[in-house]
Amino acid sequence: MNAKKTNYTQLIKAKATDLGFDFCGVAKADFLEDEAPRFENWLKNGMHGQMNYMANHFDKRLDPRLLVDDAKSVITVLLNYYPEQKLPEENDDLKLSKYAYGTDYHFVIKDKLADLLTFIHEEIGEVGGRAFVDSAPVMDKAWARRAGIGWVGKHTNLINREIGSFFFIGELILDLELEPDGPITDYCGTCTRCIDACPTEAIVGPYVVDGSKCISYFTIELKEAIPEDVRGKFDNWIFGCDICQDVCPWNRFARPHKTPAFDPHPELAAFSKSDWEEITEDVFREVFRRSAVKRTKLEGLKRNIGFVGGG
Questions:
Q1: Residue 141 in contact with residue 152, Cβ under 8 Å?
Q2: 3-class DSSP state of 310
Q3: Which of 30, 64, 76, 186 gets the highest tally of CB atoms within 10 A of its CB?
Q4: Is 113 flagged in the annotation as binding?
Q5: What is the pLDDT of residue 311?
Q6: Domain span at residue 81?
Q7: How far is Cα 114 from Cα 91, in angstroms, rounded to an integer?
Q8: How far is it, in rounded angstroms, from Cα 215 to Cα 239?
Q9: Is 210:217 a contact under the CB 8 Å cutoff?
């Protein structure tokens, strides 16, 4: 049985590489015992702000066997999105989180995971399972850590020693027993650059982020007016924020992605501050047709642009 397990695991990891994933690791599908009290406290302290969906399906978030019957393994994959060229960020240029430059990652990773699942069915046989990309209550960073493909940094993003932290995470939860990988060490050491750099002081302590204070929360999740007490603290970010990742020493190892779908729309690559400020519904629809930026709708994006610009 062990030889079969090892063989299946190697087969799946090799296919994940063929499909373009940068890393692939396996963890045993089990209850997330360490995460349970931390997550409960985080919710209790209201750090999810208006992200009410975070409080839903509490049990399912902590136990993959409630998502997939008889789940045995959680396969976690990473897909790099670090751009070859950043969008203009000179002086007063408005800033967009790098993950939103190109096609919405949900589409890209879901397709690749569907191909991986098809491969498993063809090569191994009847295997029950589901793909997850941020679309269901799965604690992806916890599973990635358990699968040994990174550790959770003090900014609570996953960090990989070889490529830093600019990557997307996806999972396949299967009822197939595979060879699990072990977690790796935390290599943050005494560094506090991410904590020191956060302009809204959202990283309230090592490994604890108050989501309701994060620039990404204000510019994406918050549907009402942005509070006045954070005006002037956004450093020109109008969708998401990369500050805690940009200052992380591990991102000196970040390398350009190889996924054409993540390249920015040609028009976006040339956007100036005035292009942002004068954006129309037609331009918004065309440039962000397949982008995560669609989440804010034009109205939300204009709110962010006005807030950053003092409007």
A1: yes
A2: coil
A3: 76
A4: no
A5: 53
A6: 2-86+99-174
A7: 42
A8: 8
A9: no
In the residue annotation, 22 being an active-site residue is answered as: no
Structure tokens at 49: 């702000």
Of the listed 93, 111, 134, 175, which one is catalytic? Answer: 134
d(CA 182, CA 179): 10
272 is in an annotated binding site: no
Q: Is the pTM of this model over 0.90?
A: yes
Q: How high is the pLDDT of residue 90?
A: 57
pLDDT tens sequence across 37-60: 999 999 999 999 888 888 888 899
Q: Which residue has the tokens 């599973």?
A: 143
Question: Is 257 domain-assigned?
Answer: no
24 is in an annotated binding site: no
Q: With a cut of 70, list the residues of the chain below it in pLDDT.
A: 1, 89-91, 310-311
Which DSSP string do the residues of 79-131 spell out, in sequence order? EE---SSPPP-STT--EE-GGGSSS-HHHHHHHHHHHHHHHHHHHT----EEE
Long-range contacts of 265-272 (CB under 8 A, 24+ apart): 265/102, 265/291, 268/87, 268/96, 268/101, 269/85, 269/87, 271/87, 271/88, 272/88, 272/93
According to DSSP, the residues that pair with 205 across neighbouring strands are 208
The total number of structural domains that make up the chain: 1
Is 201 inside a domain boundary?
Answer: no
pLDDT of res. 91: 54
| CB crowding 184-204: b at 16 or more within 10 Å, else e | eeeebeebebbbebbebebbe
Give the number of other CB atoms < 10 A from CB of residue 278: 10
Per-residue pLDDT, 1: 53
What is the rounded distance in angstroms from the CA atom of residue 192 to the CA atom of residue 207? 11
Please indicate, yes or no, if residue 281 is contained in any of the structural domains: no
Instruction: Tell me whether residue 212 is annotated as binding.
Output: no
- Please check whether residue 158 lies inside any domain of the structure: yes
Two tokens at 219? 């510019």
Concatenated DSSP letters of 200-230: T--EEETTEE-GGG-HHIIIII--SPPPGGG
